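Long-time lurker, finally posting.

We've been working with Bacterial type II secretion system protein E domain-containing protein (Knoellia locipacati) and I want a structural starting point before designing mutants. I don't trust myself to interpret raw outputs, so I'm hoping someone here can both generate the structure tokens and explain anything notable. Sequence follows.
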Amino acid sequence: MSGVSDVIGGGGSGVAAGRWPGVETAIRGGRAPDAGVIAELTGEVVELGAQGAAAEGALLRERVLGFGPLERWVGAPDVTDVLVNGDGSVWVDRGRGTEATGQVLEPAAARALATRLAGLARRRLDEAQPWVDGVLPGGVRLHAVLPPLAESGTHLSLRVPQRQPVGVEGLRRLGAVGSELGAVLGRVIAARLSFLVVGGTGAGKTTVLGALLADCPSDQRIVVVEDVRELDPSHPHVVRLQGRSPNVEGVGAVTLVDLVRQGLRMRPDRLVVGEVRGAEVRELLSALNTGHDGGAGTLHANGLAETPARVEALGALAGLGRDAVHAQLRGAVQVVVDVARTGGARHIRAVGVTRWTGAEVVVDEAFVVRPGGGDGSRGVVTGSPDLDDVVRGPGAARLEALLVERLGASAAPRPDAARSPDAANSQRNLGSSGAGIRDGRVA
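Top reply, 14 upvotes:
Generated this for you. Predicted structure of Bacterial type II secretion system protein E domain-containing protein:
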């Protein structure tokens, strides 16, 4: 008798052969196959014996509900990304940069896999909609592009979720933050200061944001708005809102702008936008300026200093002028957390505080992890930094003043300024960093 896996290729007979077209139709229609149908298909091979049935059942699930030829990479504990290029070559990232696996998919197989995974993510992928962004069962994030957009062939990207660290302590155990900078971040959360987590692609922004949200008090209601679900904070009271693509008629889309507006009506103690990348920045800044303290989000930016310009560019998408963006940003965001990927390791690189210059908002370094290895003076860093080698910057006094205002005198962060002469010099020069704090707004 043919195995159930043969049915997938067009062989087989009996109930399995009759059931398979329905499974295939469900997938193409964006619906996951019914678990009972999968069990029935598996039952067709009982005469193969217990071991044979188990093997066929596992193969069926892999090909119908799993990742097919990519299963071994997605299931590997150290793999964070699985990538298929247009030529069929398969690449993975184990946290040290991409590396070739030597596996090559046939063009038809790559396209069929991308189309099937899109269906499992309840998304559409075809000639009329040649790209897709979605989340698969189990939390794997899917992105795929078909020709002619990708000229060489189907491109498939899978972001594999890692075990999320819980709280600042989880980040410390992960090696993403030292104890001193972790204490600062813990007080930022306790003080309900609004903050942005910034960094490049794959730097760990979502991981850091999720961990920090886990430290929010359990009696606070967190409303999380995302285009594609990625944030999974370990917190007892999280409400998740997720965007939606338009249907085949081009209607029915739900944008982040829509979701932020709805989230504000849900009595949030903290409003969080998973990734701020468009016109929703207007609604977020407005919300954080109207009593919704402690809000947060992630933002693609190359560092603390570039953050205001990035927010300004996004504000332009919402029709806001430069002056309006900076006026809103002044009262909306107090802290910026910069994350980076150095030598394959993701870590928090710096914490900054916003400052109003009289014409615009700038972000001053408050606490910075000294780069490790290489020639730091020339911007070349090859080694992993000592996460407890923290240098105080010109914004440290201002951040301390904010924390004291919110939490009291015992709450000010006090990283050891005596770790280096540079740190001591920074501390002596703190008085030149600008004015203080008035009514929670950076002056």
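Before you design anything, note these points.
The radius of gyration is 25 Å.
The first helix runs from residue 4 to 8.
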